[in-house]
Amino acid sequence: MRVAIVGAGVMGCTTALSLAARGVDVTLLERSVPGAEASSAAAGILGAQAELHRHADDVATFVAARAAWGPWARELREHTGIDVGHRVSGVLRVARTGDERAALAEEVAWQTARSLRASLLDGAAARQIEPELSPDVVAAAHFPEDAQVDPPALLRALMAAAARSSFVTVRAGATVERLVVESDRCVGVMLDGAPFRADAVVLAAGSWSSLVAGLPADMPAVRPVRGQIVLLDERPPRARTIVFGGDCYVVPRGDGRVLCGSTMEHAGFRKEVTAQGLHTILSGAIACVPSLAAAQFAGAWSNFRPHAAGDRPLIGPSPMAGLFLATGHYRNGILLSKVTADAVARVVVGPAPTG
Ligand SMILES: Cc1cc2nc3c(=O)[nH]c(=O)nc-3n(C[C@H](O)[C@H](O)[C@H](O)COP(=O)(O)OP(=O)(O)OC[C@H]3O[C@@H](n4cnc5c(N)ncnc54)[C@H](O)[C@@H]3O)c2cc1C
Q1: How far is ligand 1, taken at its centre, from the CA of residue 338, in Å?
Q2: What is the pLDDT of residues 17-46, one digit of tens each?
Q3: pTM for this prediction
Q4: N or C: which end of the chain has fewer CB within 10 A?
């Protein structure tokens, strides 16, 4: 069986490895540099609980996605020698007002009723977990099992694993122009004016997914939502817990690097870092963790979260035979990458023969 995957972000690369583990020949088609878009730009929060927002449908998937990360990070390290920075650093979502505290109390009650570990702390207890928290924090929801990875290291590990696999071929600089469809079935893609035939095609083109010509008309559109990130260098390293406050977050890597994010902007494909973006992110981050005011500015970037109409990621079979989807993961593509890849590989390959 030969599978073509369109796009070599975290979805395309991880799906390629899941298919390769099942003995499938995979060609990863990437128009640019593998991993260079949203996947390497992400903050890398595995916020299964911080990102739930009482979506009952997501509980099992989000928690399974987070649980998959320990073994997956270990496997990547053993296989490639690259540490992807998996750390169970926990998340504190902070409140400064009584109303914010009441909202957190409801969230914690909703989660604990579903057997998830979460607690509502007063300000002093929250500062015991993260001493750098602002003194005006009156309460925090603590999700101790939420975690993080380092996305650039992750993408390097995925590419190294792909390069070592005899089942995976990576073609960088290969732009898929459109699907090749015969008798209502996707039988390959058009690449530089020539057909590339495959038994199955997986669309993993992130925010650019809807720009591939020939997609079924009833497939939900995927659109970009820009996010900006600021990188600070804290010397010596002080902050240690991921902090969410208002519409910002602070992600200490543990080695002095602190990522602060992020904006949510409908700006088309304008990959810019703006004065307003920097201002919003840095003022939000310093309000949560005041000592960051003295940290060194180390960089800033932006990229595009792939948001699917209907607010659900597109995973598995599509309305067209031969075409499978691994796209539209919006704010949680790193968290969901391994479980998505395994689910897509299972449907592409089909059930194992019985007897
Ligand atoms: C600022 C920011 C912060 C984020 N933080 C987090 C976080 O903390 N935790 C989390 O879980 N998620 C986070 N996300 C979301 C996460 O990054 C995405 O959901 C995820 O990376 C999407 O992966 P992808 O492989 O679908 O897309 P991408 O990484 O964008 O990859 C798509 C690839 O397809 C290629 N491509 C497109 N069109 C074609 C074509 N026609 N032919 C060939 N190749 C093509 C592109 O060049 C690209 O390399 C964040 C995103 C952003 C922008």
Answers
A1: 14
A2: 999 999 999 999 999 999 999 999 999 999
A3: 0.97
A4: C
pLDDT of res. 53: 80
Residue 351 has pLDDT above 80, yes or no: no
State the distance from the centre of ligand 1 to the C-alpha of 183, rounded, in angstroms.
31
H or E element, residue 177: strand 176-182
Domains of the chain: which residue ranges?
2-81+151-221+309-349, 91-146+223-306
Cα(80)–Cα(19) distance, integer angstroms: 18
Residue 126 dihedral angles phi and psi, to the nearest 5°: -65, -35
Mean predicted lDDT score pLDDT of the chain: 96
> Which residues neighbour 156 within 8 Å (Cβ) at sequence distance 6 or greater?
35, 82
The pair of three-digit structure tokens given for residue 46, joined into one six-digit string: 């595995």
Per the omega criterion (within 30 degrees of 0), is the bond before 32 cis?
no
> Which of 5, 10, 192 has most ligand 1 atoms within 8 Å of its beta carbon, as the pocket-test mutant?
10
Strand partners, 261: 229, 249
CA-based radius of gyration for the chain: 21
Asked whether the beta carbons of 111 and 49 are under 8 A apart, the reply is yes
Provide the greatest CA pair distance for the chain: 66
Same fold, 2-81+151-221+309-349 and 91-146+223-306: no
* Ligand 1, CB within 6 Å, residue ranges: 6-12, 29-32, 36-39, 41-45, 175-176, 204-208, 212, 227, 229, 261-262, 303-306, 327, 329-335
- Please calculate the CA angle 213-219-221 and round it to the nearest 5 degrees: 75
CATH superfamily of 2-81+151-221+309-349: FAD/NAD(P)-binding domain (3.50.50.60)
Q: How far is CA 346 from CA 18, 22, 57, 62, 139, in A?
A: 9, 9, 21, 19, 43
Q: Quote the CA–CA distance of 143 and 55 in Å, as a whole number.
A: 16
Distance from C-alpha of 168 to C-alpha of 188, rounded to nearest angstrom: 17
Residue 354: the pLDDT is 62
Distance CA 9, CA 41 (A): 11
Asked if the 91-146+223-306 domain carries CATH number 3.30.9.10, the reply is yes
The mean per-residue pLDDT over the stretch 140-145 comes to 98
